[in-house]
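Retro notes (design track)

What went well: tokenization of the new backbones is finally stable.
What didn't: we kept losing track of which sequence belonged to which structure.
Fix going forward: every design gets posted as structure first, then sequence, in one message. First example under the new rule, 116 residues:
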């Protein structure tokens, strides 16, 4: 099992420069436009006890064989400060061998988590 390390915003920018992130998104949208992406409707359910909503959003790009999932929960009120809060995790999987290639989690004051 991979070790997991928490990175701050500056470390994330260093690990994935904006130019590479933009290129990756360009390639993903090209696959989507070419019909080579599977994006099922997001699953959603409400959390009435916590005034929140959880969303599960998988995607598969057949041309690049990329598989990813974003799980996000939005709380409409933060009991500590009254601001909306988003807690989310993203998994990028190595599809052929079912291995986590990149995983990150983010929240109001938590950086990105990626395997070492």
């Amino acid at each position: 099992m991979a070790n997991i390390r928490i990175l701050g915003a500056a470390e994330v920018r260093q690990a994935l420069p904006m130019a590479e992130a933009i290129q990756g998104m360009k390639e993903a949208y090209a696959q989507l436009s070419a019909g080579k992406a599977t994006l099922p409707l997001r699953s959603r359910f409400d959390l009435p006890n916590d005034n929140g909503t959880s969303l599960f959003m998988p995607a598969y790009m057949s041309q690049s064989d990329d598989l990813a999932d974003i799980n996000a929960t939005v709380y409409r009120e933060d009991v500590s400060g009254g601001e909306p809060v988003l807690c989310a995790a993203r998994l990028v999987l190595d599809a052929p061998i079912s291995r986590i290639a990149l995983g990150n989690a983010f929240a109001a004051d938590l950086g990105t988590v990626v395997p070492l």
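Added context from the reviewer: The chain has one domain: 4-115.
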